[in-house]
Amino acid sequence: MAVGLAGSPHQLTGNGPMSTVGDVVDCEIRKWGGESFTVPAGYLNTASIGIPPASTADAVQTAVTNWRTGAARAPEFDEPVRIARAGWARLIGVPTDRVAIGASVSQLVGLVAATVPDGARVLTAANEFTSVSFPFAAQHARGVRVDEAPLADVPRLAPDYDLVAVSVVQSADGALVDLEALRASEARVLLDVTQAAGWLPLSLDWASWVVGASYKWLFAPRGAAWMAGGEAELASLMPHSANWYGGEEPWQSVYGLPLRLAESARAFDLSPVWFAQAGAAVSVNWLAELDLAAVRDHCVGLANQVLAGLGLPEGESAIIALDLPDAGARLAAHGIATASRAGQTRLAFALYNTSEDAQAVLTALRG
């Protein structure tokens, strides 16, 4: 039976052959946009760890096999790095030459935090994911002040601050910041797209900074992250993690002075985590070719199927948080994978989820 968006080239197909992964979990082969995913029924934890398409897992496995057998050669990973960088740039709507690579969001945000002026005032959302807020709070010895405000108030307050640092989609409950209002405020803004990129269409070339990690809706291994900056912002950024890979010609900047960094955002590159980049080159590039409006409608539609079934107001996010007694335990008893965040049970819907997954939630909670 086909489920998802009937007639769409990005149609999701369920009820495929069952497989057993590691002799532990029965999984279903589900397809979207020509890719196959091996998904346990009721897997609603993409906001913690995304499941890779088969081609991404195969690329990582090949890289591991080459490493294991001595066939790996370091320069061979330059091409996956290039492809993943370009794919992520397309996903968020920025030029590729304004994107640097890293290993985690906090490491990249830390570069920005270390460069804000002494005494700068930074605004973030209340209960923001700390990889966004902690790097700025850690600058307190320089007089940097970080204030929290309710997410809905952030755009209104933004002009009073030197920088706003906020996630596009909140990790704890899936709430979306008002991007249009933030843009209209003309404030300097750092946006974390880790819980948004891959399911939410984005066009963020107006933002001062955009950061994001690889291992949720981008379906790649943990260990790859990216940062985009505006031209003026990149020109003022100090390359505190300067290394050989940030050179204009990386394999010619391995030894010796003088400092010779790239003229583009590559000057801020961290030496890549090879296996993560090998996977990201496949899944991120694939996602950048999809109709993300269709992906968003599918994911949000499943989230709203659950909310409506529970008599709760529908939303606009692929992430929902349920404040119901024992919800996590009741869902786990039915084999449904979720996460506990900020005292609530978090459910996250991805393109490989189905209406049956949403119905299983309702069955478990109503029971």
TrEMBL record:
- Keyword Ubl conjugation assigned to the entry: answer is no
What domain of life is recorded for the organism? Bacteria
Molecular function via GO = lyase activity
Q: Does the keyword Amino-acid biosynthesis apply?
A: no
Tell me the protein's name: Selenocysteine lyase/cysteine desulfurase
Matching entries from InterPro entries are given as: Aminotrans_V_dom, PyrdxlP-dep_Trfase, PyrdxlP-dep_Trfase_major, PyrdxlP-dep_Trfase_small
Per the UniProt record, which residue ranges are transmembrane?
A: none
Q: Aminotransferase class V domain spans which residues?
A: 72-310
